[in-house]
Amino acid sequence: MKSKILKSLQYIAFLLAGIVLLYFAFRGIDLNEMILQIRQADYRWVALSLIFAVMALIFRAIRWRLLIEPLDEYPKRINIFHAINIGYLSNFIFPRIGEIVRCGILNRTDRTPIDRLFGTVITERIFDMLLSLFMLCLILILRFDVVSSFIMENIVQLIIERIKNVNIVLIIAIIAVFIISYILLRKRLSKIQKFKNLLQGVVKGIKSIKHMRNFKLFIVMNFAIFGMYLLQTYVLFFALDAASSLGFGDALFVLVISAFALILPIQGGIGAYHWIVSLGLTLLGLTREEGLIYATISHSATSILFVLLGAISFLSVRIKKAL
């Protein structure tokens, strides 16, 4: 009962955080004029951007299967695709839960051990992080002036201001509590055989990369996924006259800063994405209103796509299990 209440409170807290960020993003904006501009957008480019989004999902499914195969598990490709779609849908309900859900779905459809699947997901996230760092380094080289201004004004200064208002003793106390809690929890968990078995399965899943049959294809899929994201971001510029003059370097910058929105534990990145992307686009010469129009179209179109694909995949899995 207590765990359900806690989860409900966490859900509400994350949702409220997104609403607050959404409020700050749209504060002072003429909504009627903004809606008019959104209606005038060229939605052929929006449709093309969604095709690239779907291609990214397909490449994610191929990449995940490459990691699973060394475990002597061969789930159906369509089931992997469905699991990924349902995972993205789950993130709109509760942030960060999608990775666990997709492992559970594939375990249900193909009996693939969930602990090993979780290990492969961790490997995926490691490569996602490495590629994100690569893109960050690349954009620092290409657009250092813009990126440095964005980081200093919207991240570093905000952190410094918050730290000034917090007692250093309180910070040390919080860190100490986390360290002690981790030590105590680790000692308790180490005595539980089930946890040991789970950990062994996760480790085996992570090590699957060592026995991969086609590592080159795995690397290609990693770059293909982020290539699709880059194209998705770029072609959407042409949907708006104000953004149509922006180039690939600008798209890479928008893609990198949008990753900051996904770090925050907020359902679907709502509010956080609008706030961060609109701020970034103002550094590229757009007005705040124009930046919000782009962010709103991008986030809304992608969210609708994920919800539709997730719902279709969920129904497909349920129907297959019923037959």
Protein model, in words:
This protein has 323 residues and is an all-alpha fold. 80% of the residues lie in helices and 0% in strands. It has 13 helices and no strands. Helix 3 crosses helix 4. It starts with a helix and ends with a helix. About 2% of the residues have low confidence.
**Total helical segments:** 13
- Percent in strands: under 5%
Calculate the terminal CA-CA distance, rounded to whole Å. 35 Å
Overall helicity: over 70%
Low-pLDDT runs of 5+ residues are 162-167
> Roughly what is the average pLDDT, rounded to an integer?
79
Shape: globular
The biggest beta sheet, please? none
Rg over CA atoms, rounded to whole Å, is 21 Å
How many DSSP-defined strands?
A: 0
The computed structural class is: mainly alpha
* Quaternary status: single chain
The sequence of SSEs as H and E is HHHHHHHHHHHHH
